[in-house]
Amino acid sequence: MTELELKYGCNPNQKPSRIFMQQGELPIEVLCGKPGYINFMDAFNSWQLVKELKRATGLPAAASFKHVSPAGCAVGIPLSDTLKKIYFVDDIELSPLATAYARARGADRMSSYGDFIALSDTCDLSTAKLIAREVSDGVIAPDYTPQALELLREKRKGSYTVIKIDENYVPAPIERKDIFGITFEQGRNQLKIDDSLFSTMPTKNKNLTEDAKRDLIISLIALKYTQSNSVCYVKDGQAIGIGAGQQSRIHCTRLAGNKVDVWWLRQHEKVLNLNFVEGIRRADRDNTIDVFVSDDYMDVLADGIWQNFFAVKPEPLTREEKREWLDKLDGVALGSDAFFPFGDNIERAHRSGVSFIAQPGGSIRDDNVIETCDKYNMAMAFTGIRLFHH
Q1: Is pTM beyond 0.90 here?
Q2: Predicted confidence (pLDDT) at residue 302 exceeds the cutoff of 60
Protein backbone atom coordinates (compact mmCIF):
# COMPACT_ATOMS: atom_id res chain seq x y z
CA MET A 1 0.00 0.00 0.00
CA THR A 2 1.62 3.25 -1.15
CA GLU A 3 -1.24 5.58 -0.18
CA LEU A 4 -4.34 5.72 1.97
CA GLU A 5 -7.22 8.07 1.21
CA LEU A 6 -8.65 9.91 4.23
CA LYS A 7 -12.11 11.33 4.79
CA TYR A 8 -10.76 14.88 5.10
CA GLY A 9 -7.80 16.83 6.49
CA CYS A 10 -7.62 18.78 9.74
CA ASN A 11 -11.15 20.07 9.09
CA PRO A 12 -14.09 18.74 7.05
CA ASN A 13 -13.64 21.41 4.38
CA GLN A 14 -10.04 20.36 3.69
CA LYS A 15 -10.35 17.87 0.85
CA PRO A 16 -8.90 15.81 -0.72
CA SER A 17 -6.78 14.20 1.97
CA ARG A 18 -4.45 11.23 1.99
CA ILE A 19 -1.23 9.83 3.41
CA PHE A 20 1.25 8.30 0.99
CA MET A 21 4.86 7.29 0.43
CA GLN A 22 6.81 8.74 -2.50
CA GLN A 23 8.92 5.59 -2.43
CA GLY A 24 8.13 2.20 -0.96
CA GLU A 25 5.12 0.98 0.99
CA LEU A 26 3.38 2.57 3.96
CA PRO A 27 4.72 0.96 7.16
CA ILE A 28 1.26 0.65 8.69
CA GLU A 29 -1.77 -1.59 8.53
CA VAL A 30 -5.20 -0.40 9.61
CA LEU A 31 -6.74 -3.33 11.49
CA CYS A 32 -9.96 -1.57 12.46
CA GLY A 33 -11.68 1.77 11.97
CA LYS A 34 -11.11 4.65 9.58
CA PRO A 35 -8.30 6.87 10.96
CA GLY A 36 -8.25 10.50 9.92
CA TYR A 37 -5.59 13.09 9.20
CA ILE A 38 -5.10 14.20 12.82
CA ASN A 39 -5.28 10.57 14.02
CA PHE A 40 -2.26 9.76 11.88
CA MET A 41 -0.36 12.86 12.98
CA ASP A 42 -0.90 11.80 16.60
CA ALA A 43 -0.13 8.16 15.79
CA PHE A 44 3.19 8.77 14.08
CA ASN A 45 4.43 11.35 16.60
CA SER A 46 3.41 9.24 19.58
CA TRP A 47 4.91 6.07 18.10
CA GLN A 48 8.29 7.77 17.77
CA LEU A 49 8.03 8.89 21.39
CA VAL A 50 7.29 5.47 22.88
CA LYS A 51 9.84 3.75 20.67
CA GLU A 52 12.52 6.12 21.98
CA LEU A 53 11.38 5.73 25.57
CA LYS A 54 11.63 1.95 25.28
CA ARG A 55 15.08 2.17 23.72
CA ALA A 56 16.33 4.62 26.37
CA THR A 57 14.96 2.85 29.45
CA GLY A 58 14.51 -0.78 28.43
CA LEU A 59 10.95 -0.61 29.81
CA PRO A 60 7.61 -0.86 27.98
CA ALA A 61 6.32 2.62 27.24
CA ALA A 62 3.00 4.26 26.42
CA ALA A 63 1.80 7.70 25.40
CA SER A 64 -1.52 9.48 25.45
CA PHE A 65 -1.59 12.04 22.60
CA LYS A 66 -3.95 14.93 21.87
CA HIS A 67 -3.54 17.43 19.04
CA VAL A 68 0.01 16.42 18.16
CA SER A 69 1.40 16.71 21.70
CA PRO A 70 1.48 14.22 24.57
CA ALA A 71 -1.09 14.64 27.31
CA GLY A 72 0.96 12.02 29.15
CA CYS A 73 3.66 9.41 28.65
CA ALA A 74 5.26 6.85 30.92
CA VAL A 75 7.21 3.64 31.28
CA GLY A 76 5.99 0.48 33.00
CA ILE A 77 7.05 1.03 36.60
CA PRO A 78 4.68 -0.61 39.15
CA LEU A 79 1.97 1.60 40.63
CA SER A 80 1.38 2.29 44.29
CA ASP A 81 -2.06 1.52 45.71
CA THR A 82 -2.80 5.25 45.83
CA LEU A 83 -1.96 5.76 42.16
CA LYS A 84 -4.01 2.71 41.21
CA LYS A 85 -6.97 4.29 42.99
CA ILE A 86 -6.67 7.80 41.50
CA TYR A 87 -6.07 6.34 38.03
CA PHE A 88 -9.17 4.14 38.50
CA VAL A 89 -7.28 0.90 37.74
CA ASP A 90 -7.40 -0.74 41.17
CA ASP A 91 -9.95 -3.26 39.88
CA ILE A 92 -7.85 -4.74 37.08
CA GLU A 93 -4.66 -6.79 36.91
CA LEU A 94 -2.11 -4.74 34.99
CA SER A 95 0.71 -6.04 32.81
CA PRO A 96 3.87 -3.88 32.58
CA LEU A 97 2.57 -2.38 29.31
CA ALA A 98 -0.87 -1.73 30.80
CA THR A 99 0.85 -0.09 33.76
CA ALA A 100 2.69 2.23 31.38
CA TYR A 101 -0.59 3.26 29.76
CA ALA A 102 -2.35 3.62 33.12
CA ARG A 103 0.39 6.08 34.10
CA ALA A 104 0.32 7.90 30.75
CA ARG A 105 -3.47 8.25 30.83
CA GLY A 106 -3.83 8.81 34.56
CA ALA A 107 -1.55 11.79 35.12
CA ASP A 108 -3.82 14.26 33.32
CA ARG A 109 -7.07 12.43 32.68
CA MET A 110 -8.94 15.54 31.54
CA SER A 111 -6.41 16.25 28.78
CA SER A 112 -6.29 12.54 27.85
CA TYR A 113 -10.04 12.36 27.23
CA GLY A 114 -10.43 11.24 23.60
CA ASP A 115 -6.71 10.54 23.20
CA PHE A 116 -4.74 8.62 20.64
CA ILE A 117 -2.64 5.90 22.27
CA ALA A 118 0.82 4.65 21.38
CA LEU A 119 2.32 1.45 22.78
CA SER A 120 5.95 0.40 22.44
CA ASP A 121 5.21 -3.32 22.67
CA THR A 122 2.63 -5.82 21.47
CA CYS A 123 -0.74 -4.83 22.93
CA ASP A 124 -1.80 -7.57 25.36
CA LEU A 125 -5.24 -8.32 26.77
CA SER A 126 -4.55 -6.46 30.01
CA THR A 127 -3.77 -3.26 28.11
CA ALA A 128 -6.71 -3.75 25.75
CA LYS A 129 -9.09 -4.09 28.72
CA LEU A 130 -7.84 -0.78 30.05
CA ILE A 131 -8.21 0.93 26.66
CA ALA A 132 -11.66 -0.57 26.10
CA ARG A 133 -13.23 1.32 28.98
CA GLU A 134 -11.68 4.72 28.31
CA VAL A 135 -12.86 7.37 25.83
CA SER A 136 -10.21 7.22 23.13
CA ASP A 137 -9.89 7.73 19.37
CA GLY A 138 -7.43 4.98 18.56
CA VAL A 139 -4.21 3.10 19.22
CA ILE A 140 -0.97 2.36 17.39
CA ALA A 141 1.33 -0.54 18.34
CA PRO A 142 3.77 -2.93 16.66
CA ASP A 143 1.30 -5.81 17.12
CA TYR A 144 -1.71 -7.10 19.04
CA THR A 145 -2.43 -10.45 20.64
CA PRO A 146 -5.51 -12.14 19.15
CA GLN A 147 -7.52 -11.58 22.36
CA ALA A 148 -6.51 -7.92 22.56
CA LEU A 149 -7.40 -7.28 18.92
CA GLU A 150 -10.76 -8.99 19.31
CA LEU A 151 -11.62 -6.79 22.28
CA LEU A 152 -10.48 -3.55 20.61
CA ARG A 153 -12.46 -4.36 17.47
CA GLU A 154 -15.61 -4.34 19.62
CA LYS A 155 -14.98 -0.81 20.89
CA ARG A 156 -17.19 1.94 19.45
CA LYS A 157 -19.38 -0.68 17.80
CA GLY A 158 -16.48 -1.77 15.62
CA SER A 159 -15.34 1.68 14.50
CA TYR A 160 -12.42 2.13 16.93
CA THR A 161 -9.14 2.86 15.13
CA VAL A 162 -6.46 0.19 15.52
CA ILE A 163 -3.19 0.65 13.65
CA LYS A 164 -0.32 -1.81 13.40
CA ILE A 165 3.08 -0.30 12.56
CA ASP A 166 6.23 -1.98 11.34
CA GLU A 167 8.59 -1.51 14.29
CA ASN A 168 11.58 -1.90 11.96
CA TYR A 169 10.55 0.98 9.73
CA VAL A 170 13.21 3.71 9.47
CA PRO A 171 12.15 7.02 7.92
CA ALA A 172 14.29 8.91 5.43
CA PRO A 173 16.89 11.21 7.03
CA ILE A 174 15.39 14.25 5.29
CA GLU A 175 11.84 15.41 6.07
CA ARG A 176 9.63 17.85 4.17
CA LYS A 177 6.34 19.64 4.62
CA ASP A 178 4.45 22.32 2.74
CA ILE A 179 3.29 25.63 4.22
CA PHE A 180 1.48 28.15 2.06
CA GLY A 181 2.44 26.20 -1.04
CA ILE A 182 6.13 26.36 -0.15
CA THR A 183 8.12 23.23 0.69
CA PHE A 184 10.27 23.21 3.82
CA GLU A 185 13.08 20.68 4.12
CA GLN A 186 15.31 19.74 7.05
CA GLY A 187 17.27 16.89 8.50
CA ARG A 188 15.18 14.69 10.78
CA ASN A 189 15.87 15.20 14.49
CA GLN A 190 17.77 11.99 15.18
CA LEU A 191 19.48 13.25 18.34
CA LYS A 192 19.97 10.45 20.84
CA ILE A 193 18.94 11.40 24.35
CA ASP A 194 20.78 9.70 27.21
CA ASP A 195 22.55 10.61 30.45
CA SER A 196 25.66 11.80 28.58
CA LEU A 197 23.73 15.07 28.21
CA PHE A 198 24.00 15.66 31.96
CA SER A 199 27.78 16.05 32.22
CA THR A 200 27.72 19.86 32.53
CA MET A 201 26.23 20.88 35.86
CA PRO A 202 26.69 24.55 36.82
CA THR A 203 24.80 24.30 40.12
CA LYS A 204 26.39 23.67 43.52
CA ASN A 205 24.32 20.51 43.82
CA LYS A 206 25.64 18.13 41.18
CA ASN A 207 23.98 14.98 42.49
CA LEU A 208 21.66 13.26 40.02
CA THR A 209 20.28 9.97 41.28
CA GLU A 210 19.71 7.14 38.80
CA ASP A 211 15.96 7.72 39.09
CA ALA A 212 16.50 11.43 38.41
CA LYS A 213 18.55 10.64 35.30
CA ARG A 214 15.83 8.29 34.05
CA ASP A 215 13.12 10.88 34.67
CA LEU A 216 15.11 13.67 33.00
CA ILE A 217 15.65 11.44 29.97
CA ILE A 218 11.91 10.76 29.83
CA SER A 219 11.18 14.49 30.05
CA LEU A 220 13.56 15.36 27.21
CA ILE A 221 12.30 12.58 24.94
CA ALA A 222 8.74 13.74 25.60
CA LEU A 223 9.73 17.31 24.69
CA LYS A 224 11.26 16.10 21.43
CA TYR A 225 7.69 15.32 20.29
CA THR A 226 5.80 18.16 22.03
CA GLN A 227 4.78 21.37 20.27
CA SER A 228 7.07 24.18 21.43
CA ASN A 229 7.52 26.10 23.64
CA SER A 230 7.32 23.23 26.08
CA VAL A 231 8.38 21.93 29.49
CA CYS A 232 7.76 18.54 31.06
CA TYR A 233 7.65 17.54 34.74
CA VAL A 234 8.36 13.85 35.44
CA LYS A 235 8.30 11.70 38.57
CA ASP A 236 8.74 7.93 38.98
CA GLY A 237 8.89 7.25 35.26
CA GLN A 238 5.86 9.23 34.14
CA ALA A 239 5.12 12.71 32.92
CA ILE A 240 2.94 14.43 35.52
CA GLY A 241 2.68 17.84 33.88
CA ILE A 242 3.30 18.96 30.29
CA GLY A 243 3.08 22.56 29.11
CA ALA A 244 2.94 22.68 25.31
CA GLY A 245 2.67 25.28 22.58
CA GLN A 246 2.97 28.41 24.71
CA GLN A 247 4.62 31.59 23.45
CA SER A 248 6.19 32.32 26.85
CA ARG A 249 8.33 29.83 28.75
CA ILE A 250 7.05 30.95 32.14
CA HIS A 251 3.52 30.24 30.93
CA CYS A 252 4.66 26.73 29.95
CA THR A 253 6.15 26.26 33.39
CA ARG A 254 3.04 27.55 35.14
CA LEU A 255 0.65 25.54 32.99
CA ALA A 256 2.55 22.30 33.50
CA GLY A 257 3.17 23.09 37.17
CA ASN A 258 -0.55 23.57 37.75
CA LYS A 259 -1.15 20.12 36.25
CA VAL A 260 1.46 18.67 38.61
CA ASP A 261 -0.29 20.32 41.55
CA VAL A 262 -3.64 18.81 40.55
CA TRP A 263 -1.99 15.38 40.12
CA TRP A 264 -0.54 15.58 43.63
CA LEU A 265 -3.69 17.04 45.23
CA ARG A 266 -5.68 14.12 43.83
CA GLN A 267 -3.67 11.97 46.23
CA HIS A 268 -4.79 13.98 49.28
CA GLU A 269 -6.85 12.05 51.83
CA LYS A 270 -9.88 14.28 51.30
CA VAL A 271 -9.89 13.52 47.58
CA LEU A 272 -9.33 9.81 48.06
CA ASN A 273 -12.34 9.71 50.38
CA LEU A 274 -14.77 11.64 48.18
CA ASN A 275 -18.19 9.98 48.10
CA PHE A 276 -19.60 10.32 44.59
CA VAL A 277 -23.21 9.84 43.59
CA GLU A 278 -23.99 6.39 42.29
CA GLY A 279 -23.54 5.88 38.56
CA ILE A 280 -21.42 8.98 37.92
CA ARG A 281 -19.53 8.68 34.64
CA ARG A 282 -15.75 8.46 34.65
CA ALA A 283 -15.34 11.73 32.77
CA ASP A 284 -17.71 13.54 35.14
CA ARG A 285 -15.78 12.14 38.09
CA ASP A 286 -12.51 13.45 36.59
CA ASN A 287 -14.02 16.89 36.02
CA THR A 288 -15.49 16.97 39.51
CA ILE A 289 -12.17 16.12 41.15
CA ASP A 290 -10.50 18.85 39.11
CA VAL A 291 -13.06 21.38 40.36
CA PHE A 292 -12.84 20.09 43.95
CA VAL A 293 -9.08 20.73 44.18
CA SER A 294 -9.40 24.13 42.48
CA ASP A 295 -10.41 27.45 43.99
CA ASP A 296 -13.67 27.22 42.02
CA TYR A 297 -15.07 24.62 44.41
CA MET A 298 -16.21 27.29 46.85
CA ASP A 299 -18.39 28.69 44.08
CA VAL A 300 -19.84 25.23 43.47
CA LEU A 301 -20.71 25.01 47.15
CA ALA A 302 -22.25 28.46 47.07
CA ASP A 303 -24.35 27.56 44.02
CA GLY A 304 -25.55 24.43 45.77
CA ILE A 305 -24.89 22.14 42.82
CA TRP A 306 -22.59 19.78 44.68
CA GLN A 307 -25.51 17.32 44.99
CA ASN A 308 -25.14 16.60 41.26
CA PHE A 309 -21.81 14.92 41.98
CA PHE A 310 -21.46 13.97 45.64
CA ALA A 311 -23.61 11.68 47.76
CA VAL A 312 -22.33 13.46 50.85
CA LYS A 313 -21.31 17.12 50.94
CA PRO A 314 -17.50 17.09 51.24
CA GLU A 315 -15.47 19.53 53.26
CA PRO A 316 -13.41 21.69 50.90
CA LEU A 317 -9.65 21.69 50.84
CA THR A 318 -8.56 24.96 52.38
CA ARG A 319 -5.80 27.03 50.84
CA GLU A 320 -3.62 26.18 53.83
CA GLU A 321 -4.29 22.45 53.48
CA LYS A 322 -3.41 22.57 49.80
CA ARG A 323 -0.14 24.37 50.40
CA GLU A 324 0.81 22.05 53.25
CA TRP A 325 0.17 19.02 51.03
CA LEU A 326 1.96 20.48 48.00
CA ASP A 327 5.01 21.21 50.13
CA LYS A 328 5.39 17.46 50.68
CA LEU A 329 6.02 16.82 46.97
CA ASP A 330 9.69 16.57 46.03
CA GLY A 331 12.07 14.68 43.76
CA VAL A 332 10.35 15.90 40.58
CA ALA A 333 12.43 16.21 37.39
CA LEU A 334 11.87 19.06 34.95
CA GLY A 335 13.02 19.28 31.34
CA SER A 336 12.78 22.29 29.05
CA ASP A 337 13.06 22.29 25.26
CA ALA A 338 14.96 25.61 25.31
CA PHE A 339 16.79 27.67 27.91
CA PHE A 340 15.09 29.26 30.89
CA PRO A 341 15.50 33.02 30.35
CA PHE A 342 14.84 34.03 33.97
CA GLY A 343 14.82 32.58 37.45
CA ASP A 344 11.03 32.99 37.70
CA ASN A 345 10.68 29.59 36.00
CA ILE A 346 12.77 28.00 38.75
CA GLU A 347 10.70 29.71 41.44
CA ARG A 348 7.53 28.25 39.92
CA ALA A 349 9.10 24.82 39.47
CA HIS A 350 10.13 24.78 43.12
CA ARG A 351 6.49 25.23 44.17
CA SER A 352 5.71 21.93 42.43
CA GLY A 353 8.43 19.84 44.02
CA VAL A 354 11.16 20.07 41.39
CA SER A 355 14.58 18.89 42.55
CA PHE A 356 16.26 18.14 39.20
CA ILE A 357 16.39 20.15 35.98
CA ALA A 358 17.74 19.62 32.46
CA GLN A 359 17.75 22.53 30.03
CA PRO A 360 20.02 23.71 27.19
CA GLY A 361 21.51 26.74 28.96
CA GLY A 362 22.82 29.69 26.99
CA SER A 363 20.65 32.53 28.28
CA ILE A 364 22.26 35.86 29.07
CA ARG A 365 20.60 35.41 32.46
CA ASP A 366 22.02 31.93 33.14
CA ASP A 367 23.63 33.34 36.28
CA ASN A 368 20.21 34.28 37.66
CA VAL A 369 18.81 30.84 36.82
CA ILE A 370 21.77 29.06 38.46
CA GLU A 371 21.53 31.30 41.53
CA THR A 372 17.83 30.49 41.91
CA CYS A 373 18.54 26.75 41.62
CA ASP A 374 21.23 27.04 44.28
CA LYS A 375 18.75 28.89 46.50
CA TYR A 376 16.64 25.70 46.60
CA ASN A 377 19.53 23.20 46.38
CA MET A 378 18.36 21.99 42.96
CA ALA A 379 20.67 20.01 40.69
CA MET A 380 20.62 21.38 37.14
CA ALA A 381 22.30 20.12 33.98
CA PHE A 382 23.03 22.22 30.90
CA THR A 383 22.45 19.84 28.01
CA GLY A 384 23.58 22.20 25.26
CA ILE A 385 20.76 20.93 23.00
CA ARG A 386 17.51 22.54 21.94
CA LEU A 387 14.43 20.39 21.29
CA PHE A 388 12.00 22.62 19.40
CA HIS A 389 9.25 20.71 17.63
CA HIS A 390 6.82 22.29 15.16
Answers
A1: yes
A2: no
